[in-house]
Design a protein that fits this description.
28 helices; 737 residues; 16% strand; alpha/beta
Length: 737
């Protein structure tokens, strides 16, 4: 006899554990009593049905001896469970322990995907938005332990999901895991449990209770699929009583409350029973236990989503048991991102993270005069999958050979315009041309012809709002550039719905963070005026900290050249006695470190304003110098957050109106980025992309300038900038006359 232990937190996990039971094995199943639906399930389960050698014990938490017990196998239903992860972190996993993952529906496939990712990622459910730092640490530690068991050949996945030679299964087997499938043999041996079901069957969903889809749309769907025919609605264990009462009131609909899983309840349903469902695991499991059911699954329309579902969850739910489409053919594809500066590197890392863990992603820097320092790279990669990882630096002359080595399906040129142009030209000459994509790392307005000309031969351009897409579409049409315009939320924004203010109105903030912008305001006098106004705020509000948040230290390069730095101007004002030392604080680092509760963000034009709004903090766009294309803040027009330096001094700092939020950067998340990349990758593999080698050979001044920028010594570039300064000042003077 062998002995095994199982920890389960759902009725389906209990069934999966029993199906994983082996002959001549003692199996103790610890069932978490506090889990939703478990109490009703255990009350209705006839314990006489259990196979010989199987016991169920009700437990409030993972038993203290679970990981240390002398068991031959440990069966786990949900490795993403906080209860399980805390217990593993507390007790540790013995290096010889043999683990078995049992089905908890499609969530288990998501666990397998995360465990077989290229690098360890914290294990979390697809519907979870964010993890607290302690929970994230526990989730990462669990992932590392399970990956170690996987690579040591001590991890088995016992599943009833259909056999498919998909990428996920292939990677799991290649990593050292094993897969054993079952067809609910124990379950089908049980007597008939449910009264005969007349007419149609509707499978309930927990997506309304989980806040993922709108209740009104869901009720309308149930009403449509029942359509006056006698129907039985089998409720999900997490559905709310108030929602079920609303469904029970529909004509011809009888609601049967949750208890035993539908696989048990419908195992003896009539031949060819008619079933209607949204995406769910039962779509895959019911055909194994029922007599030729006729299942109709409805994909979830875009308008149903509430905004609380991550893009990856939406995509996976709607792919459930559907016919193969182009995006199934490229479940894993290769993307190489090439960046030239700190801000573009930060955007590239988060954009690739937004594509999900399944892609083969590479992040490179191209050697050039504005190459970020190691400290800037650390700040840019913080919080992304590339944190604490070395970012390769590729010479311009080596770019083509390096791309040929990797053979990417997509090249993301995350760089300034001149460098994008040469990256695109290089990609266009590869034997199998990758799709060429670019974008901007923050607020992309105003859209300019100059910027689009650099990206002329690109296949796609990433914008961050419908407002931006409309502006860039107008420019592209004017120039005759046939580029696909993708709308994807800025990856640094974490909210999934328009944010709400998280501060008391009319109360001056405890801290002011001024986010500098290299390009505006241009004039030295305007920048001095800002510094003096910030000083005045500090003097009027004793105890309030005022921080000048700069992007780099003296001597470090940025994406855009700054003629008059705030650090040098502040030093001069202190030397002149206009500002006392310590009245203003200069700081450098990731913006997320400074946007804490009690803080207000002030800027002339900076993407940091969106980060502040995303956290519900008071935000002010200084309008003393105008809200215009020239000031690079036209996107904030009519937002409700523009105001004067006098407003700032008085503490009048507000929050945007909802209409502006929805139209500008805080629209509902969508799958447009992932779907577009998957299609572009497939077109590259099928060699359906147009030949751009002729267009790439066209040499013009901008291309020559791009080549010089990456090849010229930094001293030469600085000399060029010094020489053109007087000319730029003359142009500004003439424009203001």
């Amino acid at each position: 006899m062998t002995r095994s232990l199982a920890w389960v937190e759902s009725p389906l996990q209990v069934i999966s554990a029993i199906e994983a039971h082996r002959p001549r094995e003692e199996l103790v199943i610890y069932a978490r009593s506090s889990a939703k639906g478990m109490e009703d399930f255990l009350a209705q389960l006839d314990w006489g049905w259990l196979p010989p050698g199987v016991w169920i014990e009700v437990a409030g938490g993972v038993p203290a001896h679970f990981f240390s017990a002398s068991a031959d196998r440990l069966l786990v239903g949900d490795p993403c469970s906080g209860e399980f992860q805390r217990a593993m972190l507390r007790d540790g996993l013995h290096r010889n322990s043999y683990l078995v993952l049992i089905d908890d529906g499609l969530a288990t496939k998501e666990v397998i995907r995360q465990l077989t990712a290229k690098y360890p990622v914290p294990l979390r459910r697809a519907r979870q938005q964010q993890l607290s730092p302690p929970r994230r640490a526990a989730a990462l530690a669990t992932a590392i332990s399970l990956r170690a068991a996987l690579h040591a050949g001590r991890l088995t996945w016992v599943t009833a999901l259909p056999a498919a030679a998909g990428k996920t299964e292939q990677r799991f087997l290649a990593a050292g895991g094993s897969i054993r499938r079952h067809e609910f043999s124990w379950l089908k041996s049980l007597p008939e449990l449910e009264h005969r079901v007349p007419g149609r069957i509707v499978l309930g969903s927990a997506m309304v209770a989980d806040g993922l889809i709108r209740r009104r749309d869901y009720v309308d769907w149930v009403s449509r699929v029942t359509a006056g025919s006698p129907s039985v609605y089998f409720a999900h264990r997490r559905e709310l009583d108030s929602d079920l009462c609303q469904l029970d009131a529909l004509d011809s609909v009888t609601v049967r409350r949750a208890g035993l899983p539908v696989e048990l309840r419908l195992a003896h349903a009539p031949h060819s029973a008619e079933i209607f469902s949204l995406p769910t695991t039962a779509v895959a499991t019911l055909p194994l236990v029922m007599d030729d059911p006729r299942i109709t699954m409805t994909e979830i329309p875009r308008t149903w989503w509430t905004g609380h579902a991550r893009d990856s969850l939406r995509r996976e739910l709607n792919r459930t048991m559907t016919a193969p489409r182009y995006n199934d053919a490229v479940s894993k594809y290769t993307v190489v991102s090439v960046s030239d500066s700190e801000s573009y590197l930060k955007w590239a890392c988060r954009t690739l993270d937004a594509l999900g863990p399944d892609i083969d992603a590479h992040v490179w820097l191209i050697d050039n005069p504005i190459l970020p320092t190691p400290e800037q790279v650390t700040h840019a990669t913080a919080g992304s999958s590339w944190e604490h990882r070395e970012i390769p630096i590729v010479n311009r002359s080596e770019l083509e050979s390096e791309l040929e080595r990797v053979t990417p399906d997509i090249v993301l040129a995350a760089a300034t315009g001149p460098v994008v142009q040469q990256i695109f030209a290089t990609g266009a000459h590869l034997e199998r041309r990758p799709a060429l994509v670019s974008g901007l790392p923050g607020v992309g307005l105003p859209a300019t012809s100059k910027g689009m000309r650099y990206r002329r031969i690109g296949d796609a351009f990433i914008t961050h709002s419908e407002h931006e897409r409309a502006e860039y579409l107008a420019v592209a049409q004017k120039l005759g550039i046939p580029v696909e315009l993708i709308v994807a939320r800025l990856p640094l924004l974490e909210s999934t719905a328009p944010p709400q203010p998280q501060f008391p109105r009319g109360t001056p903030p405890e801290r002011i963070v001024f986010a500098t912008q290299a390009k505006v305001p241009v004039e030295r006098a305007d920048r001095i005026r800002i510094l003096l106004s910030l000083t005045e705020y500090a003097r009027r509000h004793p105890g309030c900290e005022v921080i000048i948040k700069v992007r780099s230290r003296p001597g470090e390069q940025e994406t855009h050249h700054e003629e008059f730095t705030y650090i040098s101007l502040l030093d001069q004002l202190i030397a002149d006695g206009l500002i006392a030392k310590g009245e203003l604080t200069v700081a450098v680092g990731a913006m997320s470190l400074f946007l804490t509760p009690g803080t207000a963000l002030v800027t002339v034009s900076s993407t940091a304003a969106l980060e502040s709004i995303d956290r519900g903090l008071p935000t002010l766009i200084i309008d003393d110098f105008g809200v215009s294309r020239e000031m690079l803040n036209i996107a904030f027009e009519e937002s409700g957050v523009t105001g004067s330096l006098a407003d700032m001094i008085d503490g009048r700092i507000g929050f945007p109106n909802r209409n502006w939020l929805v139209e500008n950067y805080f629209q509902e998340p969508n799958c447009e980025l992932t779907d577009s990349f998957e299609l572009l990758a497939l077109r590259s593999r099928e060699r359906q992309l147009p030949d751009l080698r002729g267009a790439a050979r066209v040499q013009d001044f901008r291309r020559l300038r791009a080549e010089l920028r990456t090849k010229a010594p930094a001293q030469l570039v600085r000399g060029y900038r010094t020489a053109v300064k007087p000319l730029r000042r003359l142009v500004r003077f003439l424009n203001h006359r």
